[in-house]
Design goal:
257 residues, alpha/beta, 2 domains, six-stranded parallel β-sheet, binds zinc ion, Rossmann fold
Length: 257
Amino acid sequence: MSDQGVQERAEQVARSLRSARRVLVVTGAGMSADSGLPTYRGTAGLYTNAETEEGVPIEVALSGPMFRRDPAVCWRHIGRIEQACRGARPHEGHHVLARLQERMEVVVLTQNVDGLHQAAGSRDVIEIHGNIHELRCPRCSWRLHVETYEDLAAVPTCPECGAVVRPDVVLFEEMLPTRALGRLSAVTEQPFDLVFAIGTSALFPYIVSPVIQQARTGGATVEIDPGETALTHIVRHKLRCGAAEGLTAIEAALRQG
Ligand SMILES: [Zn+2]
C-alpha cells in the first residue's frame, strides 16, 4: 500500500522541519478538497463548471469586463461558487498548518478564495486570488465581511454610494491584487527552510515559481498531492496522498522525534 510510502516520506519531512525556522506553504484547490469543496477547474481560484446558461464560457461570465457590462451574470456564478463553499469547515490539514506556527514562522500562499486557512488559525496568509467572503465597493471605500451570501440581494449594491458591489476575488482578465503581490515579493526575499506545495495543479507562475526557485537553490521542497503535477519531478519529497492525510502524517512524525 502507498501508506508506507507516505509514512516514510512524512518522517523525512519531519526531520527537515525539526530544524526549520521559516516555511512557505503553497496551497491550491486540492487543499480545500478534503473540506468537501469541489475542485473542477481551479482557474482564477474559483471553482467553476464548464458551461453557462448565458451561452458564454465561464471565463467570460466570471470576468472583469462582464462584471462591468452585466454584473447580474457575474453575481449568479459567484453565488454558486459561494454556495459550494457554504458551511465548509477547515479539515485536520488546515489545523496542522495552524499548529505548526507554534514551532516556526509559517507563510501560507493560497489560490483558494474560501478563507479556510484563516478559519483554522493561520495568521500569515497571502490570498493571491482574494476571498469570497469579503465584499467591496469598486467606487468608494465600503467593505463588508460576510459568512454567507444567503441574505444578499441577487445584485447587491453599496449602502454608501449605490454602486454594484463585488466580492474581493480576482475575476478572469483581472490583475492580481497589488497588496498580495507586494506581500508575496516581500516574504520571498528571505530564504525559506522548506517550501510545501499542496494540491496545486495550476500552472500560474506566481504559484509555482516559489517552489521552483527553492528547488533550484537546493532548498528542501515537499509536494502533497495524490496525483502527478508539473512540480512532482522537481520536489525532494513527494507524498502521494491528500492534504489532510499527508499533513497529519507529518505532524505525527514530528511529535515522535
Ligand atoms: Zn460605494
